[in-house]
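Researcher: Quick one. two chains, 655 residues in total.
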Amino acid sequence: MSNTKETINISRRSFVEKSATAAAALTIAPGVILNQVHAKPADEAVTSAKRWGILIDTDKCGKGCNDCVTACHEENGIASHGRPLTDQVWIRKVKLRDKLTQNVVSLPMMCQHCENPPCVDVCPTGASFKREDGIVLVDRHICIGCRYCMMACPYKARSFAHEVVDNQRDYQPRGKGTVESCTMCVHRVDEDGTPACVEACSKAEHGAMIFGDMKDPESNISKALVKHGGTQIRADLGLNTGVRYRGI
Amino acid sequence: MKKIQLQPIDGNSSGYLGLLALLGAFIAAGMGSFYYMETNGHWVTGMDNQVVWGMPHVFAVFLIVAASGALNVASISSVFNKKVYKPLAPLSTLVAIALLVGGLMILVLDLGRPDRLIVAMTYYNFKSIFAWNMILYNGFFVIVGIYAWFMLDRTMKQYSRYAGIAAFVWRLALTTGTGSIFGFLVARTGYDMAMMAPMFIIMSFSFGLAIFILVLLASYNWTGRELGDAIVMRLRKLLGIFVMAVLYFVVVYHISNLYATEHHGFEKFMLLGENGGEKYSNIFWIGQILIGSLVPLAMIYAPAVARCRRTLAMACALVIFGGLAQMYTIIIGGQAYPLDIFPGMEVLESGFNDGIVSQYSATMPEILLGLGGFATALIVIALGVKVLGFLPATLADSVTDPHAKAE
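Model:
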């Protein structure tokens, strides 16, 4: 996957702009451009026809680059309180060395959006849930803050809001005393967008992250997975993750 | 056996009122701690995003497990038809309910959103063992309550055995559920073992009985009622057997782990204190095994102090201490040991403390909340023996077991 253009985000335009474009296009050339407008109407249910996923190429991931983390936290309004142990972390960079081969890799680690998520299994109220399209979320209106999902997650992908949450985004309601994690930027995805981390990786010209529908054989991620494969972290757990890696 | 008469305690003495005041002070301190943690958020505690369950859980799970075990005496009398324990069965139900109240209080007040308790009661994910536990806990109150009622109501007495059997089955399910909270955590090296469930059951026998014996000794001593050796010696021996049974399970648990290569790191951490596990290893060997198991066993079985009540009380206190140490090693130690997210890889750098042992130190509010839960359980018992009068007027040998010449 050397062609970084494949990962270039085509949906950075705002929803309004897209809607206007779509309206104009429908007026001018109905049937010609229709297929380019995918934004899902808000009242349309998410279906299992799609399975959103991210493929991360650790060979391309910039060692020392933290752009995906910065972009994620900026996008979702995650601010540090200056207390690293209790600050929320939705995505982190990890540098690893293979104990046998001594090969060093760098990769971003976040919610792996499992098909069989342990966090969803253990959540007593159903606040942890998986959408039909594979995105794992926390309904922070019914999360009681028991933190059992944090105990169960094999990837340590979740954080607890240990103090009052400031700097909230309209599209990302959060609150003290509840658990949160990567949403795969669901607010963007539902409007045909790309997660902020993937976008930042492209912008930094690493192109290490490909986002897309793993059920669509024509998507960039599917083509890359067919061609190169993709490893699951802790595949032994049989969780069938939506985030896959190359080079580990 | 002569007819046993249950009699409320007077509850007017300065000692009794002083006890209530002392327990009330602990409860007030617990409530203050809760308020402090709730208004500031959990960052003021020792818990963080690595060790998400802290000291409150150690106390809470201990009390919940002990609650089930405190029902031992009632179970033995009803289910296994041992008449000698019958007079103590109502007290046994009271202690069981009280301990569960205390444990659940801590658990709820440590939630991130305790105000959403109603959500926890109305939204159920039936795949979650936590959700099942909420049903098991609530059901325990109802079933044990009915059991106590049947035992004391002359018109319902004939059904008390059935209620006792139901309560016995329910308490086994409850402790199975509590152990499974940990047993079902597949990704954590220290948990992920079906044996957690039976181990928690046997732990409940030991911890619950230790608390029950202490309550019994204290209440008879302080009220000046007669408590014969016949019953005390039986309970003493029973406690010894339970402490040994817990030890057996602990040995099997670690041997099972030692057999699996992937768990060797955890065992070195817990048993040998390697890789940053010194604290947990010390708590395990000194707190849980030595002070919490071997010393009380010696106190229970040493012939020279075989009838010494003070020694028995001390042994019970040590079993409780050992139980808390065991909960600490399981709950905190299990979390402190790093998750093996990248098998075969060494973590060189991480933005989220991957691959390193997490540091946890309980803060005062957490400890006070835990002690507040303990005090709540004890105050429920203290008020219960006054209001409900579950304490037999006498447990002299001549009453409980005329044949036993105190062995």
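Chain B has a mean pLDDT of 94.
Researcher: Thanks, that's what I needed.
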